[in-house]
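Technical annex, item 7. During the second reporting period the consortium partners agreed on a shared format for inverse folding records so that results from different sites could be compared directly. Each record opens with the tokenized structure and is followed by the designed sequence. A conforming record, contributed by the partner at site C, is shown below for reference.
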């Protein structure tokens, strides 16, 4: 099946209309590396759809997040980052230095959710979880910065 037919069906099954704007945004998302800011996406879209404004991109992304087609990454500390959503249940690791996002699937929170449900009487339907830290590339950089700071101090400045 054609990719846009899949997207159309997914939107419809979630009760959303597959408008040309939404499809254009979804096509642009499919062309990203997986993670993107609204500004980056708008930059891509402008070439083919000059009339599509940044506000519309924001609005469409928030609608797609609600429809479960896009992930919104919270803990970047800077601008919004969105991600193409993998269909499986997953969570994110977010680098606080470069805003890289890595997905992981082996969530072990079901047992905790069941226990909390029993304890509190909540009918738990879902959860959010993001890990914050430094990615493999940023860790050595941070160590290098700390080291050079120490050597400055060590030099008696
Ligand atoms: Zn995600
Ligand atoms: Zn990083
Ligand atoms: Zn989970």
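Designed sequence (site C submission):
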């Amino acid at each position: 099946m054609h990719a846009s037919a899949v997207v159309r069906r997914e939107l419809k099954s979630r009760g959303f209309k597959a408008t040309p704007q939404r499809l254009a945004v979804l096509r642009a998302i499919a062309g990203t590396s997986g993670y993107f800011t609204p500004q980056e996406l708008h930059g891509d879209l402008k070439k083919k759809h000059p009339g599509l404004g940044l506000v519309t991109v924001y609005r469409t992304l928030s609608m797609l997040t609600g429809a479960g087609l896009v992930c919104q990454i919270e803990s970047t500390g800077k601008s919004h980052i969105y991600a193409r959503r993998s269909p499986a249940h997953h969570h994110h690791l977010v680098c606080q230095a470069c805003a890289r996002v890595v997905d992981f699937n082996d969530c072990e929170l079901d047992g905790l959710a069941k226990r909390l449900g029993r304890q509190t009487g909540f009918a738990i339907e879902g959860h959010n979880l993001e890990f914050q830290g430094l990615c493999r590339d940023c860790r050595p950089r941070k160590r290098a910065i700390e080291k050079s700071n120490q050597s400055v101090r060590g030099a008696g400045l």
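Residues 11 and 17 are 6 Å apart (CA to CA). Residues 71, 83, 85, 90, 92, 103 surround zinc ion (ligand 1) (CB under 6 Å). All partners now use this format for quarterly exchanges.
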